[in-house]
Design a protein that fits this description.
single chain; five-stranded antiparallel β-sheet; 46% strand
């Protein structure tokens, strides 16, 4: 599992996404979790940050999710501070928003989202 603010995040995501297609996406009913299923069977699981148990601080929810039916040539993370984190891919001269998480934090509970890889068996 790796957090989107980790210095290794983009290298980690590129290692799994580059030159593949996202053939299916599944959004969970919790509003925070999604699966990106790649053409080689690998599954990337995205999970929003979980914050305070008694308030809204630090909770990040999935607000956009899409697949990519073309080979992914590059990946970038775009953020507007602490409220929104989006993962984009580049394919055939197009920049596509694959997922976006939105939320807010007061500095104590964390921000953004995590990615976990479930390898094909």
């Amino acid at each position: 599992m790796i957090h989107c603010e980790s210095p290794e995040f983009l290298d980690f995501v590129k290692e799994h996404l580059l030159y593949h297609k996202i053939i299916d996406v599944i959004q969970y009913s919790d509003g925070q979790t999604a699966e990106l299923i790649l053409d080689n069977g690998t599954v990337l699981i995205a999970e929003g940050n979980e914050g305070c148990d008694g308030c809204d601080n630090g909770w990040y929810y999935l607000t956009h999710l899409s697949g990519c039916d073309n080979a992914i040539m590059n990946v970038e993370l775009v953020t507007n501070g602490i409220e929104e984190y989006s993962l984009y891919v580049m394919t055939e001269d197009k920049r596509l928003n694959i997922l976006t998480y939105e939320g807010d934090d007061n500095g104590y509970y964390g921000v953004g989202f995590y990615i976990t890889v479930k390898e094909r068996k």
